[in-house]
TrEMBL record, chains A, B, C, D:
Name this polypeptide is given: TetR/AcrR family transcriptional regulator
Segments forming domain HTH tetR-type: 13-73
PROSITE patterns on file: HTH_TETR_2
Domain of life where this protein originates: Bacteria
Record organism: Streptomyces anulatus
Keyword DNA-binding set for record: yes
A Pfam family reported for this protein in Swiss-Prot or TrEMBL: TetR_C_11
Keywords noted in UniProt: DNA-binding, Transcription, Transcription regulation
DNA-binding region (UniProt annotation): 36-55
Organism phylogeny: Bacteria, Bacillati, Actinomycetota, Actinomycetes, Kitasatosporales
Amino acid sequence: MVQESGRGRPRSESARASVLHAVDDLLVEVGYAALTMKGIAERAGVGRQTVYRWWSNKAEVLYEASVIDARQELAVSLTGVPRDDLRAYLDALTGFLAHSHAGAAYRALLGEAQHDEDVAALLASGDVLGESAAAVVAPLLEAGGGDLSPEQATALLIGPVFFHILSGRGPESVDTKKQVEQFLRALAAD
Amino acid sequence: MVQESGRGRPRSESARASVLHAVDDLLVEVGYAALTMKGIAERAGVGRQTVYRWWSNKAEVLYEASVIDARQELAVSLTGVPRDDLRAYLDALTGFLAHSHAGAAYRALLGEAQHDEDVAALLASGDVLGESAAAVVAPLLEAGGGDLSPEQATALLIGPVFFHILSGRGPESVDTKKQVEQFLRALAAD
Amino acid sequence: MVQESGRGRPRSESARASVLHAVDDLLVEVGYAALTMKGIAERAGVGRQTVYRWWSNKAEVLYEASVIDARQELAVSLTGVPRDDLRAYLDALTGFLAHSHAGAAYRALLGEAQHDEDVAALLASGDVLGESAAAVVAPLLEAGGGDLSPEQATALLIGPVFFHILSGRGPESVDTKKQVEQFLRALAAD
Amino acid sequence: MVQESGRGRPRSESARASVLHAVDDLLVEVGYAALTMKGIAERAGVGRQTVYRWWSNKAEVLYEASVIDARQELAVSLTGVPRDDLRAYLDALTGFLAHSHAGAAYRALLGEAQHDEDVAALLASGDVLGESAAAVVAPLLEAGGGDLSPEQATALLIGPVFFHILSGRGPESVDTKKQVEQFLRALAAD
DNA sequence: TACTAAACGAGACGGTACGTCGGGTCTTTCC
DNA sequence: GGAAAGACCCGACGTACCGTCTCGTTTAGTA
């Protein structure tokens, strides 16, 4: 993923874009399981070696292809009203995990990370969920009391939705309004 | 997975046991990614067709091999004291997800379920986490007030730990004692 | 292929007939290569073991199923006029090898015999071609002169047609009339 | 079986040679029936796909591996003396069919051709027997009279030996000297 | 009328080859 | 020296058939 300057032909930006675009399309069309390096290369109209040169496996390609979208979808413009901000964030999170392309990519990668430490490291390198939650949670912790660490607060906020969707319960039964109240109450005296 | 009918040679119980044993061993030895139907059959000293005859894929074998252990590890003997029971359950859950063989199998399956709906259906067919939590949560809901559905209470209890570990944050930063308090507070006035 | 008398259930004649019938049908429908012991048993509505009990491989079944037809098709009613009898025999031989079901079975078995000595022994045990030719050739050898052995005369008579058809030249280019003349001339002073 | 085009890695000549060598060895060692594409690839130290890429089945590999030897073994250096040339050819033919490796391959292929039209077409594409005989027969037909077609003369010459050996009568009873006389006499007034 | 014994159908068993697919690498030519 | 092309070796896929082995059932003797 490093690019050297100097001698030789420079990296083809069009090839890079083709690959990222291809992996995005393919994830939707065939799903993660049927996503292959060979298939990506063919769909992108690119040599196989070119894919391997810049990414070591399909997880890396997929990560690079989806992380920007993921960040955007999880970014909430803060109003300063805790209830509103939390609610907006949980809605965004639910939509991301349950319905978005980037979210599907994230879930696939997180699944792979359970038994592939390379993928786990990749995901840890850019903690999309944690960082997005921190933006909402940090102001509250600074302002309010509670002795919760930011990490714990994040887990408390994200956890229930995260579990709901990843365990296959579906997003319908997620009640973000009620969860905001629970979160605030749990936080309160802590 | 049951079969009955007088005719024909009956299913070999020893073959079944060999396969389940083999998949258990192999998960530990080579990991989920390198687990193959071929490898399972060879390790079990069994024909490949015999494996395919009773299980459609490695996820099914693994599920059958680990679900009983999983249930045992997550079963908590209730004392009737909410704080103690909840604490015991969260400790068991943390240990299961982070350190147990059966837990590793569960995490692998849950990962696969994110992009394979057959596996998702398989996991949904026996909701190990949900059921084990219900045993602890149900008494509280009956006793106490709150308008939380059992499902929501379960997600509230399990979610934070679940997120912590599956997102790669590690079990060290899980503080079950504090989480019990949060849970009880969130539940309280609801 | 032997049938013992005595205790126990006697061999089922209907099973035997079903198998022979099935192999006949299947040869025509799917060809020799796709003929399998399993397929025969299923088509005959018979247990696999029953087939194996009485025949050791598909060649044996096929041989038993076709040898009688073969003998019939190659039997020529002699008139005593050499030219007519030889002509009739060569016509029968051509038809047998090129167009008949039994002939297709024979060619398949002969092919297998080239690399399977069990099948070679099976074919040698009942030399359908040789015997049928002998019936036509023997009278000539007794009557006429020539120091040809019956075997050599048989080869001389059958050989050209046999080669023509088995080497894939097709039966159209077989001129039995001319071959009779050649045969008689070659035989003449020998 | 030819491939050309600048792009891409060119076909490995060493892989091709290994495969042809392997199939030759294996035919002798295990026989045609036990010859498998898998076995060929493994023996040649070559990927299975590489074998399938250039040959569709074991018959094609075997054909390519043996056809050159076959042609050599059946080539007779003509003296111009019919009796000598015919005799030499029949001796070569007998040796080829009965004792040579290439001949064993030919018989196996011819057997397969009886029930596999792909193999039949393959054999027909290079009529080793017909062409070799034509070289000996053509001069006679041009010189002498007779209204025999080259095809018929070929069948007349080859047929008896061919039948003798393929029908399992063995090469001992082949009397090439006598057969030359028969052939010449049959040819004579025709 | 039992009992015994073998053949019967069904179908699971351990094996192994099938032909295909993807993995990751290597070797060309072209840019 | 990057890139497209495509052949290379490897090994898992899921299927088919091999020949064998249990099962419960049926059909004869023989006792």
